[in-house]
Amino acid sequence: MAKDTDTGADTGYMGGDKELKWVGTRPPRPDGVDKVTGRAKFGADFYVPGMLIGKVLRSPHPHALIKSIDTSKAEALTGVKAVLTRDDFGDRSSEFVPAGEMMVNYRDIVRNVMAREKALYEGHAVAAVAATSNAIAKQALKLIEVDYEPLPHVIDAVEAMKPDAPLLHEDMITDGVEPAPTKPSNVAKRVEFTIGDVEAGFAAADVVIERAFDTSPVHQAYIEPHACVASVSEDGQAELWTTTQGHYVARAHCARLLDMDISKIRVTASEIGGGFGGKTVVYLEPLALGLSRKACQPVKMVMSRDEVFRASGPTSGAHMKIKVGATKDGKITAGQAELIYQAGAFQGSPVQPGAMCAFAPYDLENVKVVGWDVVTNRPKVAAYRAPGAPISEYAVECVIDELAKRLGIDPIDLRLANAAKEGTRAAYGPKFGPIGLVESLEQAKAHPHYQAPLGPNQGRGVASGFWFNIGGETCASLIVNEDGTAALTLGTPDIGGSRASLCMMAAEELGIEYDRVRPIIADTASLGYTFLTGGSRATFSSGLAVIEAARDVVRQLCERAAKIWEIPTDAVEWADGTAKPAGANAGDFEPMSLAAIAAIAGKTGGPVVGHAQINAQGAAPSFGTHLVDVEVDRETGRVTVLRYTVLQDAGKAIHPAYVEGQFQGGAVQGIGWALNEEYIYGPDGKLENAGFLDYRIPVASDVPMIDTVIVEVPNPRHPYGVRGVGETPIIPPMAAIANAIENALGIRFTELPMSPPRVLKAIDEMAAAE
Amino acid sequence: MAKIHVSTTINGDAVEFLCEPEETLLDVLRDGLGLTGSKEGCSSGDCGACSVLLDGRLVCACLVMGAELGGCEVETIEAMAHGDVLHPLQSKFIEHAALQCGVCTPGILVAAKALLDKNPDPSETEVRYWLAGNLCRCTGYDKIVRAVLDAAADMRGS
Ligand code: FES
Ligand code: FES
């Protein structure tokens, strides 16, 4: 999470009065033509001569001891060049390191990449092969003999917490409990965030509402499956092309798992076909490198969609209890939550951020949130857009709505009366700087959507959301070419148009045309360590680095002009894309453009290149409010979203079209989470809907246009005021839709998804009760 | 098993290839011919990322067998622009920011073009139902639908 400790050098907010030429406009993205012509190379689009095909053998059991693995027959098959099993990976000690917004443990990563003592979920990788063709690789998988001893499994987190539940890890002692338990369990961790005294708070309340909620695991469901090509030479030099949100992070994981020097692995991030957090971890990369190292030939690996569902992602399902108290006039006196998040087969659910976010939109004196991280026989969860927050905030925002109804207060007014604002201390510790929750609520209330009439079986819902956003380590370099154009070298993979915003900031700072800046996403050997695209940090953190690199360029350009004019450097200023004498005393010289200085740079000291290597600080949270109208079909239980409006604080939208796109995309992912998406398991512990036909994400005909209102409360720690925007939009939809359905039917759903069978059942039950 | 020899037309060019009996049109395009603009999101006909035109009909390339292509005409995303002139749909997708990651984009463009070839003046609802077989996880479809409607208007000259 962002800790507001240290200010970036001279990168504070410049104020809103500076006239901007590019920032805030909507130019075409630099990679647009590549992406509309099919030219852009995504993970599976790399082909290398002599390339082998790698495939993974996966456990058919949700939980089983692996007694032995015999690969001899597979190895003897003509065309098989390498086989990997657990024996090819050294064990790793238990140690947590940050990856995106979650912590990872190499003891667990090595076991998730390749099952060791046990297979812990259906789909868990057990062996991998590389062969000269797809068909031979598939045949080889069939020849691998694994002796499993199936064990009882547990899929549900509450079941997994019971004392007699099947145990996934025999050495797991619950962390965060005093005194430490003496027996192992499936409960990895307890977290707690408390301020004030909730008991006193509830005692002061006129109304107390307590509800339990359940959510299902949902997958990030990026359209591009995981894919990579690895090539390791005889001397151990490795190249890796992979679809990832963070190629430096992937490099670090691979080096650690394979005992390689970081310098030996050069990773190039392909174009990435969606990630949403799910491509912050490694699955195939260490296997492809390991196979290539054995075979001394390049190896390509691509997951099938079935493998994506069974063995990557998803995010947690959860069981939650929420209790909120308020006075008659709508002042919330206490909020309490208990959150049980299932982590999948290894600890590390996003319960901690879920606990921190639960009540973050509100200015409360008394809060207590307790969270539990529980392992089950499911794939290990991965980050999904604001990991943890959509789950806990969904539950809280439903209770807030119920409270508003009980108190007879408009739900926006109730939120406004309790909204966090500048100076509010969040239950998880820090005081907020300037934030835009109140603005988003006020604009929601004033929006025509909020007043529009509703028909029969229709309802309207409101919910708000909060996410931290992060900064972190980032590099950028900006090369001034001889003709006055520029090359911008970046380290954050462009997952949704960030090249455009970053070039716009470079052009703005340099005072040159936007289309004169050409961006590339550098490989890991060409630019310093840059943390991944995630945590809504790419435009913020790479943006700060770009601005700093551009200012470095401007400093150098001023120096060059000073040299040419033979005046002191501080007598030169940069304005309107030109170097000028800083005042009358500096002398009378014709201003020199960037291009003019660049043309003779060879004579004034050599090429002009700006660099920035920073640990970006000052990421500011983003708050948003969503409005939704739904119509419920009483015959089928189908809920149709009729109208949707997202109002969110972006600080400053560099490229408003891509900010709107984040709002719209997040909202529609949330609509899927609310209404359809869920992992369905059979009693055998196997996933029953591992495909897009049965795991149904929203399609174009499921949704209306998504209206957007970009609220701009500038982040004081960024020159243009930027806040991350990508994650907050997925937080409010589930509660907003639940609240709208309640408004339409008078039925409060407390379980996600609110799919047609579930809605129909509730309608029928209500009819029967009447 | 022996490979099968197929003669076909792809993007207007006569093409011959050898394929395994189980290889799909998508495998042939991507692995055999280096036409990687068509994407594989599911290989089960559920995502539309592999959309191509087969004898003028919109199909999922992952559901067509390579061996069936003899004498057919296939059109892929690679043939959508003419020289350095983008198809209006391509320009409008860029102008409207109708792509984020862009992996669904080739399939959606091919599908949208097939729609506009049949129906130059579709309603929003018609666009949404026509594109219901093309999944996009990033955009929420808003800007995609707007881009298609705007391209259609442009192409009608209004
Ligand atoms: S890859 Fe053909 S429909 Fe998904
Ligand atoms: S833009 Fe990413 S899936 Fe459509």
SSE map:
The complex is a heterodimer of chains A (770) and B (158).
Chain A: H1 32-36, E1 52-58, E2 64-70, H2 72-76, E3 80-84, E4 96-99, E5 102-105, H3 106-113, E6 118-119, E7 125-131, H4 134-143, E8 145-150, H5 157-161, E9 187-195, H6 198-203, E10 207-215, E11 227-232, E12 238-242, H7 247-258, E13 265-269, H8 285-295, E14 299-302, H9 305-311, E15 318-326, E16 332-344, H10 351-357, E17 367-375, H11 389-407, H12 411-418, H13 437-446, H14 448-451, E18 458-467, E19 472-480, E20 486-490, H15 498-510, E21 517-521, H16 538-565, E22 572-575, E23 578-581, E24 592-593, H17 594-599, H18 601-604, E25 608-616, E26 622-632, E27 639-649, H19 656-675, E28 706-711, H20 733-745, H21 756-769
Parallel strand pairs in A: 1-14, 12-13, 16-17, 20-21, 27-28
Antiparallel strand pairs in A: 1-7, 2-6, 2-8, 3-7, 4-5, 9-17, 10-15, 11-12, 11-14, 15-16, 18-26, 19-20, 19-25, 22-23, 23-24, 26-27
Helix pairs in contact in A: 7-8, 10-11, 11-20, 12-13, 15-16, 19-20
Chain B: E1 4-10, E2 13-19, H1 25-32, E3 51-54, E4 57-60, E5 73-75, H2 88-95, H3 105-118, H4 124-130, H5 142-155
Parallel strand pairs in B: 1-5
Antiparallel strand pairs in B: 1-2, 3-4, 3-5
The structure holds FE2/S2 (inorganic) cluster (2 copies).
